[in-house]
Write the structure tokens for this entry.
Amino acid sequence: MSDIDLHPDSSRLPTSEERLLLVEEVLRLGTQVRTTANVRVRSVVDEFVETLHGEAARETVSVERVACDREVEAAPEIRVEGDITIMHVVEERLVLVKKLFVTEELHIRRERTLRPVVVDATRRVMRAIVEREPVDATEPTIHPVPPTSS
């Protein structure tokens, strides 16, 4: 049979009214999802004891009583002179007239000292462990994916 012969009767020549059957193949691309392995991820916390170095501040306060006997019109405000805070103790005295006297001042001195300290502390670090478990090759799990229309 030649390229023109489409009928079993090859003695006939094709006429102009005869129709030829054309065949077309259509290809479609698709994918399948296959499970090849399972993955397990777990986290582990590691602990490390570390020595930390630093400074710790400590303040101490001393109070000095300073005797005074001076008359004032109103109770004086607390005042600060350098590192000393001065607070007044007042009393009312009855005389022919009532007057206010400062009987003493409290001089409060604040001292700050720094001392080195060493502290053991636990530091935690999290890390991930990934383990791959192969799937049995004799029975693959296949998940067909429908073809996309284009």
Notes: The mean pLDDT is 81. The chain has one domain: 32-144.
